[in-house]
Specification:
Structural class: alpha+beta
Order of helices and strands: EEEEEEEEH
Strand order of the largest sheet: 1-2-6
CATH architecture of the domain at 5-76: 3-layer Sandwich
Shape: elongated
Number of strands: 8
Helix content: 10-25%
Strand content: 15-25%
CATH class of the domain at 5-76: Mainly Beta
Length: about 140
């Protein structure tokens, strides 16, 4: 089993947390970092690298790991020192659409097939964050 862990150096002290954002799985190691806060590059969710918590009350958090420095090597404990929480759920209209699509696919006629002359075009637009500094 592997874990994707991001390590942050704050004034010579090292902190480790899950590299996977609790929102949609964005890579936290590619986000902006200021003081003790890392901002996910995908949608702007923020986490304190010392605790894995967001900088506000409530909200989702990510796993934190203890880091030990021995000589010139860093060791992160494989077991989380603090397990993150996930309370995020999609907007109601999105959840309804998702359920309707799943329901439709479950009830398709088994003889239905797609022929080669059908062109399928899919366009997805995310308006979760329109902050160009966070998610250009």
């Amino acid at each position: 089993m592997t874990k994707d862990i991001a390590v942050f150096n704050v004034d010579g002290k090292f902190y480790a947390l899950s590299n996977v954002c609790a929102h949609k799985g964005g890579p936290l190691n590619e986000g902006m970092f200021e003081k003790y806060l890392v901002t996910c590059p995908w949608h702007g969710w923020k986490y304190d690298v010392r605790t894995g918590n967001p900088p506000h009350e409530g909200g989702d958090s990510v796993d934190c790991y203890n880091v030990t420095v021995i000589g010139y090597k860093l060791y992160a404990d494989f077991r989380p020192a603090k397990i993150g929480t996930k309370s995020y759920s999609p907007h109601r209209s999105y959840a309804d659409l998702q359920n309707n699509v799943k329901n439709h696919l479950r009830h398709l006629d088994t003889e239905y097939s797609v022929t080669s002359d059908i062109i399928v075009r899919i366009l997805g637009i995310s308006s979760t964050n329109s902050n160009d500094d966070v998610a250009p």
